[in-house]
Amino acid sequence: MELPVVPAPIPFDGRPGIGDTFGRPLRDLRISVTDRCNFRCTYCMPAEIFGKDFAFLPRALVLSFEEITRTAAAFVDLGVEKLRITGGEPLVRHDLPNLVAMLAGIRRPDGGVVDLTLTTNGSALRVLAGPLRDAGLRRLTVSLDSLDDEVFRAMNGIEFPVARVLDGIAAAQEVGFAPIKVNMVVKRGANESSIVPMARWARDAGIILRFIEYMDVGHSNGWRLDDVVPADEVLATLDAELPLEPAEPNYRGEVAGRWRHRDGGGEIGIIASVSGPFCGDCTRARLSADGKLYTCLFASDGFDVRGLLREGATDDELRAAIASVWRVRRDRYSEERTGQTADLRRVEMFAMGG
Length: 354
Ligand code: SAM
What we know:
The protein starts with about 25 loop residues before the first strand and ends with a helix. By secondary structure, the protein is of the alpha/beta class. Helices cover about 30% and strands about 15% of the residues. The chain is globular and about 55 Å long. The chain has a 12-stranded mixed β-sheet. Bound molecules: S-adenosylmethionine. S-adenosylmethionine (SAM) binds next to strand 3, strand 5 and helix 11. S-adenosylmethionine binds next to strand 3, strand 5 and helix 11.
């Protein structure tokens, strides 16, 4: 890939770093550590497509912990402040706490620590919450789409019982993760009835719950606009039972709109990726398990970082390549979404890193 040299715009937040074509700084890196997952969520990895014959990445093509850490450190040198480990399901990658320890050791150019977090389906937290915490993980997001066992089993595609995810969340709380965030994808006809029970549970359990609009990521989930429950509808449903008031964003670029319970019992977030796109504030890059750098969740092509690493690139060359990719970035897919864009051949979310 030939990379044109483009002068860097001043990043909009004024802190050191690099900006893209629209001045959006590079602040977050999501690192997918595997394309494998033990769940088959209907909206992400439907079982009828990703069955036992599906060819996941062979081990040799997956970045090693050393390669991931070296790449992450290059991103941090360029201004990244937050690293999120994801997948696939990150907890199915062997020895993940070792990677957490390596990433937790990365320092920013000013000597500060990096905000290191992880997104999981929670199924293995009873075993791994302690080792992850001991390795230096401080924040955790768990995906959970319903408290209703029947609804949850149908959505995760493998009949996984909700009680085991709840037990995983309890395990994480026991070892000191607080507050835990929980993400719930809302899909029409699947789990709208779970919106209010989830909000009540999260409020009582001291959990920050975020509702996510069902997105047209990848090209296998048969996404239709009609299946999206828009943020306004989620809010109205909640407000009718549990009155809410708007809360200020924590920082510019925060993806979730924040709302507080009027009775003072905590907050919820709504990620309106479809009805209220936030491309203008998007500061995220993604590194897939096979070492591709993507500058948009809806991308169909990425830059081959693994090739550079394995050809013996120096740290300077690695940083220069990443900076060149970011500086020419013009992605704003969600703002440009139309009926037709749903048919584009995009990389699957589990492959790119959700
Ligand atoms: N396995 C981990 C987990 O379950 O959190 C990490 C990867 S998963 C792809 C990351 C997040 O993406 C999950 O919260 C999942 O619900 C969400 N997700 C997957 N497909 C989605 C879609 N079509 N629309 C909205 N969110 C989606």
